[in-house]
Amino acid sequence: MMRRRTHSGHCSLPRGAARAAAPVACPPRRGAPALAATLPATLLATLLAGTPLPALAAAPPPDRPATTVQPPPGEATPAPPRPSPATPVPAAQKPTAPDAALRATLENGLRVVIIPDRLAPVVTTEINYLAGSNDAPPGFPGTAHALEHMMFRGSAGLDRDQLSELGARLGGGYNADTTETVTQYYYTAPAEDLAVALKVEALRMNGLSLRAEDWDKERGAIEQEVSRDLSSPVYSYLSQLQAAMFAGTPYEHDALGTRPSFDKTDVKLLRGFYERWYAPNNAILVIAGDVDPPRALQQVKDAFGAIPRRTLPARKPFTLTPVQARTIHLPTDYPIGIATLAWRMPGLKAKDFAAADILGDVLGSQRAALYGLVPAGRALATQFSFQPKPDVGFAIAVGGFPKGSDPAPLLASMRGVIADTVAHGVDPALVQAAKTHELAQLGYRADSISGLANSWSQALAFQNLDSPDAIAAAYEAVTPDDVNRVARQFLQPAGMITAILTPQESPKPIAGKGFGGAESFASAPEKPVALPDWAANALRELRLPTPAPAPVVSTLPNGLRLIVQPEHVTSTVSVYGQIRQDTDLQEPPGKEGVSSVLDRMFDYGTERLDRLAFQKALDDIAAEENAGSTFSLKVPSRHFEDGLSLLAENELHPALPAAAFPVVQRQVAGQLAGLLASPDYLFERASVQAVVPPHDPALREATPHSVMALSLADVRGFVTAAYRPDLATIVVIGDVTPERARAAVEKSFGNWQASGPKPAVDLPPIPPNKSGHAYVPDRTSLQASAALLETLGARVDDPAHFTLTLGNEILGGGFSSRLYRDLRVKTGYVYSVSSALRWSRERSSYAVQFGADPGNVSKARDLVVRDLRDMAEHPVPAPELDRAKASLLRQIPLGRASFDAIGYEYLHLADLGLPLDQPDIAARHYLDTTPAQLQDAFRRWVRPDDLATVVKGPPGGG
């Protein structure tokens, strides 16, 4: 499998209803902790996730947050992941080929691209201003980022409160990110609200308020963001790496900015930046989704046509100087060590970009020598990542080593792999596989509406291309000689920067008596916000969303449940599967960790095909595959049967080779040794201990000792006992008919049989928890992370599920939510805050999480408690309730705006034992809920005085 395209960051898709009823996947999107987002995210997931901590209530499948997360308005990030052009598919099968897009340039210079995608009644607008941190005045590296934040503080015709109100009622996701050369603002909303989203962006382009009192408040929030990122060792590493790679150029500074620069920044400086760069002739607007392109273009003209163009400043050229080799040493709170080698590389606009990208794919392939260090037992994990920016780029080879071990042998092995590649060249077969994979990605673009908008934005704004497809010819032309030439030119020791991120011991958690009594806060009622007529008229009506098309559901004779959703927006098929499991209940006593060992053993191929042969078979059909208790496949539709056969072979007949078992066993044990002492793990474990009874199954944990006591027979026994078709669900979505999908699944999975009675896979109910406090010291963190948690007595099939979800939307569902308003806007205590309801079949819980300076944790907690009490003591005002209803009702269609969203929603509903039309059922409940019912639900189920508090942060900050 080639290097995955990964996108870290905030998910600002549907919150509340669709997510509590059935959490949905985030589409590829940006906005993670600034520069740290560029570190290979799949490696971080592999290295840092460790053995999953048993959840109080079942978590959704990967990449599907069950929380109602409130992202802050704006994130400074590096250049977002570039588009993933891709597969040699006949042109007629490309539904989003260049000629399917409507292009126009308004008289004022605004470039517009509109790409139809009928996957769901949803639209994403993404406006790209061609200015970023590289254009900041000297000494003010965060100017573009600061202005991005202020774009959410109101404009002429739409003040800050109206913008928040409108965003909440739209129900979609709106956010932004800042990079070195581009600042992006994006809305994902119901397609019927396109004109509203466009009007918002037009008002912000032409008349931003930029009031001094607003900047004084926003400065505190943005400095909280700086503290958060400076708490990340990865951010520290990448900041130093970028400074060394691009010294003397605008790229040496991250887009985030610094506290000193923000302290010096005033609205005059921000206004000057805004007036220089925020002009229609310096912007590209991308619209993707269920729209009529000519009508959408007219709406764009109506909104933006009168905005005058401006004369743009000239940009100064810069010259790169040679990189000086050096070694960076950094302490971390990670469970394992990370060793990296980095080199400067071409940028997105360079003629050698395609060859450099293919080189990155080749070196990152699981068939290549770098990954081979893992099965050889010389690394816990490895990855190679090419990270291009518009004018420059860098590549990072990363390897993981056990905490306490010497990284020198791993670094020597990594250097040897790269040196051998430079000296002897790459494998031509891997070059061809990489090209096939890159080209195949074109077929996957339209399976996410926001992802489609993002890929076009990357092509136009970052690469200066005509469309994402324009890079295809460059990929097709790449030869092994081109790849070898780029390797010889750039992967040289003289310009290599080495880094070692070493885990440090962290103090043990400290139990405490908790915080003192709540402070007294003035809590004058909030006045209803009157929207402008153009917004009020569009959003006034509360109505049920159109029900989604029903999938075709069947059950195979062996008990496997099959859900098929034909979607012909792209010539690909995605498969999502899960086997209901709870390792806390199913791992035999003394065999803790057997499931973690098994998870890694799936990487070693099948009984028929060894690791390399299996990977080649996937590469040959441009498939992406994962096996395990949660499994998946993405494949061009013409290769659907072949891909599904390989997935089934890996899932049902894994090789589990005897020679690999001791290697994997040592790797898992080595990772656990660091994980069990890491602050993040201790924080999560303290959170579970705070709310479950002593000796609860959720408190079981694997240890190095339990893993090293396992045998290969234990692993094989766990497969037999826990991997059963009568606990499995498979979802097939894409360019396939129900009949074809059923036939393929029966052929590949029909002979799978269960033995013995079904195991227990649901944790039993638990009593209400009591208030408590725990503090986890973290020496590497500048900011404290806090979680306030409690169990709920409500069941997932209780109608209170919907009522509590509606209340949670009021508390934590958006920029206008009570928690965001009180903890961020009014007081500046936190940078971000989220609240979440989590459900399993027998357990439920509620949690509020936030990050804050240590001195503000107690103050923020008191405000949370006050807001929760208010929900039970006073009816929610009708305007506030209507806003939450409007938000949740409009969010429901957004839960179908990508294949991932649809697939994981169905899996989650199946896991909870809920009907597949649960979002439609939820919508009716939301519409009918009264203030009295909402107040009664919070009075009955939520106990503010019993919230357990867990804090992780700087020593002495608890």
TrEMBL record:
Q: Where would one find coiled-coil regions in this protein?
A: none
Peptidase M16 N-terminal domain location, by residue? Answer: 112-258
The residues covered by the Peptidase M16 C-terminal domain are 269-436, 710-888
Which terms are listed as keywords in the entry? Hydrolase, Metalloprotease, Protease
Instruction: List, as start-end ranges, the regions of compositional bias called Pro residues.
Output: 59-88
Top-level taxon of the source organism: Bacteria
Q: Where is this region: Disordered?
A: 1-20, 55-98
Family (UniProt) = Belongs to the peptidase M16 family.
Q: What PANTHER family is this protein classified in?
A: METALLOPROTEASE, MITOCHONDRIAL-PROCESSING PEPTIDASE SUBUNIT ALPHA
- The name this protein goes by in its record: Insulinase family protein
What lineage is this protein's organism placed in? Bacteria, Pseudomonadati, Pseudomonadota, Alphaproteobacteria, Acetobacterales
